[in-house]
Amino acid sequence: MKSRLVVVAMSAVLALACGSPPDGGTGGASTGTGVPYELIATIPVGGDGGWDYLSEDTVTHRLYVSHATKVVVIDMEQNAVVGEIDSLPGVHGLAVAHDLKRGFATDGRENKLAIVDLSTLEVLSRVETGENPDGVLYVPDTREVWAFNGRGHSATVVDGETGEVVATIPLSGKPEFAVYDPAVKRVYNNIEDRSEIAVIDATTHEVVDTWPIAPGEAASGLAIDLVHHRLFAVCENELMVMVDSRTGAVVGTVPIGGGVDAARFDPATQLVFSSNGSGTVTIAHLDSPDELMVVQTLETAASARTMTLDPSTHRIYLSAADREAAPAATDSTGRPMRPRLIPGTFRVLVYGPRG
C-alpha cells in the first residue's frame, strides 16, 4: 500500500500572522472540516498534585479527570466542577460503563480497581489487580473491565457486574492505552517498552498476535477508526503511526510534537489528535485509509499532555497546571529534574472548532 505524508505549510504562515494567544493559541491551517481548533474554555479546578487520564461520558455529559488522589467530575455543558470521587491514591483513569451505571478507576498505588457508583460518586468496592494498574478499558459486549498493569506486565479482567476477576493476561512488556473493536471482538494494547501492539481475543482472553510498529518507538496513546480498520499509535520518537487493524501492517506515519501521551480519533470529522507535552496538539486528517495529513498544530500549555475527546461536540479536553522554572539539578539517573507544579493552578483546557 502506498502512504503519503503531507504537512500543511499554511500552518506556519497563520501562526506568524495571527500570533499565539496564551494557554491555547492556534497555529495551523483548517482542520480538514473548514474550521481550525481554538480555545473554547478554561475550567479551574485548583488543588495540588499530579494527574493522568481524562474520560468522557457523552450520555450524561460528564468529564472524569484524575487528579492527585481523586477523580474530579465536570459538567461538560456548564464547564464546571460538579463533584469528585475520593480515596483513590495513585489514581490513573476511570472507565465508564453506562449499562451498569458504574465507573471503574485504576488505583496504581494500592494495586486495585475501584468500582464506583456514578450516581452517588461513592466507591462500592475494590478489586485486586496486578502491579500498578494504569490504563483501563470497559468492553460492553462482555460487561468486562480490563485494567492494564504497568509494572505487572499484565491485564486483569474483571466482571463488571460481580466484581470478580475472570482472567489475568500476561503481556510482553509495559502496557499503555488500549482500544476495543466489537466487530472482531479484539482488544488492541500498546506495549510501550517493546514498541509493539498486543492483539488480544476479548472472548478467550488470550494474546493472539503482536505487531511491531517501526518506525514508531515507545507508543503510549492509541486510537481506532472502526470503519476503515485503522489504529493510530502516538510514539515517543515524535511519530504517529497508522496501522491496519486487520493485518498489523504500518500503512502511514506523520510527525507529532514531543512528550506525547494520548491519542483520539473523531469518526465524524476523520480527525486524529495527539496531545504532546511540548505544549501542542497535533491534529491530522485521514484523507483516505492510507493517507494522513497534518492539518493543524494547536498550541496548548507546556504541561497539557493528557487528553480526551467528546465526539458529540468534537471538543477536546486537556489537563494542565503551571510549573516553576526548571531546576538545574538532575536525578539519580542523570536526567534533569522535573519542574515543580505551582499549587492551585490545575485546570482543564477545552478546545473546539472555531465558530
Helical residue percent band: under 10%
Radius of gyration: 19 Å
Q: Profile the largest sheet.
A: 6 strands, mixed
CATH class of the largest domain: Mainly Beta
Overall tally of domains: 2
Shape: globular
Structural class: mainly beta
Structure commentary:
With 355 residues, this protein is an all-beta fold. The protein has 2 domains: 1-49 and 213-324 and 343-355, 7 Propeller (Methylamine Dehydrogenase, Chain H), CATH 2.130.10.10; 51-173, 7 Propeller (Methylamine Dehydrogenase, Chain H). It contains 1 helix and 30 strands. Strands 1, 2, 24, 25, 26 and 27 form a 6-stranded mixed sheet that branches. It has a 4-stranded antiparallel sheet with strand order 3-30-29-28, with no helix packed on it. The radius of gyration is 19 Å and the shape is globular. The two termini are 37 Å apart. The relative contact order is 0.16.
Produce a short descriptive summary.
The chain is mostly beta strands.
Annotation keywords:
mainly beta, Methylamine Dehydrogenase, Chain H, globular, disordered N terminus
Helix-strand blueprint:
Blueprint: E1 4-7, H1 10-18, E2 26-28, E3 37-44, E4 51-57, E5 62-67, E6 70-75, E7 80-85, E8 91-97, E9 102-107, E10 112-117, E11 122-128, E12 133-139, E13 144-149, E14 154-159, E15 165-170, E16 175-181, E17 186-191, E18 196-201, E19 206-212, E20 219-225, E21 230-235, E22 239-244, E23 250-255, E24 260-266, E25 271-276, E26 280-288, E27 291-299, E28 307-310, E29 315-320, E30 347-353
